[in-house]
Specification:
6 strands; about 170 residues; alpha/beta; about 45% helix; Rossmann fold; globular
């Protein structure tokens, strides 16, 4: 099973707050924070085919372009599933993730979700009925491994069209 990750510049390892204008970038395989997800994805037979990312400020200044182009890039890769996140408690990244995941679900046959903490309440309220949003802690550490396991349950249940997918969503999503 092939996965595409959508990151901001920080999670991609392309610079944090000091580099917010990184343009749209696609890299084969997993980079940056993908490493902390790999062991969880391996348990469900998934691997990261590509990581797409851009800077937060670049996104805020080019929202329509970023959403449209990232959706098109995902179409070219043809993954089984797209994970937009983990966004932790970063509001700009959470907004980008929710918008891109929603676009992918609306404009392609590819399955997708966003992943963020409850601190992104405004974005969660706006998008929770448009895309699955997996719950996670605001920082790394306590609860993070559980949220990655929950993410994998959602991915596997979605890709395999599991009969208990709705129960999984109720358990792991907002």
């Amino acid at each position: 099973m092939n996965i595409v990750l959508i990151f901001d510049q920080g999670l991609a390892g392309a610079g944090g707050k000091s580099n917010p204008n990184v343009g749209l970038t696609a890299v084969k395989g997993g980079i940056g924070s993908a490493l902390m997800m790999e062991s969880h994805l391996e348990k469900i037979g998934a691997k990261v085919a590509a990581t797409l990312y851009c800077g937060n400020e670049y996104f805020l200044n080019n929202q329509e372009e970023v959403v449209t182009k990232m959706t098109a890039m995902v179409k070219k890769v043809k993954p089984d599933f797209v994970v937009c996140g983990p966004c932790f408690n970063f509001p700009d990244y959470a907004k980008m993730a929710a918008m891109i995941s929603t676009s992918i679900l609306e404009k392609t046959e590819i399955k997708s979700c966003a992943m963020m903490s409850v601190e992104n309440g405004e974005t969660i309220e706006l998008y929770k009925d448009k895309t699955p949003i997996v719950k996670m802690p605001k920082k790394g550490g306590t609860g993070l491994n559980d949220s990655f396991s929950d993410l994998c349950d959602l991915i596997k249940g979605t890709v395999e069209s599991s009969s208990d997918l709705e129960d999984i969503k109720k358990r792991v999503c907002y």
